[in-house]
Amino acid sequence: MSKKAQIKMMESIAVLGVFFVLLVMGLVFYGKYQAVSVKQAGSVAFDKEAIRIVEIISYLPEMQCSTDAVTEFNCYDVYKIKGLAQTIQGTESFNPDGKIEYAETVQSQEFKQYYFSTFGFSKIQIVEVFPKDTLANPTVIYDFPPVSEGTSDASKVKGISYMRVPVSLFDPVLRDYSFAYLEVGVYRR
Question: Are 86 and 102 in contact (CB under 8 A)?
Fold first, then answer.
């Protein structure tokens, strides 16, 4: 083989080497871009799920304020909230720190399963902002994290996407309003 042919072959190999290096770099860049796009699409999906749950809970008659058969928008009855939380979470008790804990009952498990079809793997709570004397802060209405097979911890949770909506709380006994926000968190799996 002549020197000229060897030089041309080496040039061809060098061009092919540069081409494949550029091709691999392009594929790596594209793969990273796709991973970020998929992650963002997943985040948008969880945000949409949180918005869907907020829309549903905004019109739940189990919590809405009503005066003379007229319901108020984004107004929740304090006693209805307490009743719904006890119904879904179980019987109420206080731990040594003074915080409210719920002991699950058979009936509360049935209600949790019923509301699971609507709320899925999420956490719904109301946090009173002003004045802070009507409800226990925060009042957890529904909490259903995904759990691993055979364990009771929430190790499958990869995060939680929150949506907060300002609401007013109405105490029908005192005929008094207070300010709070509804916090809906969707668990990422």
Answer: yes
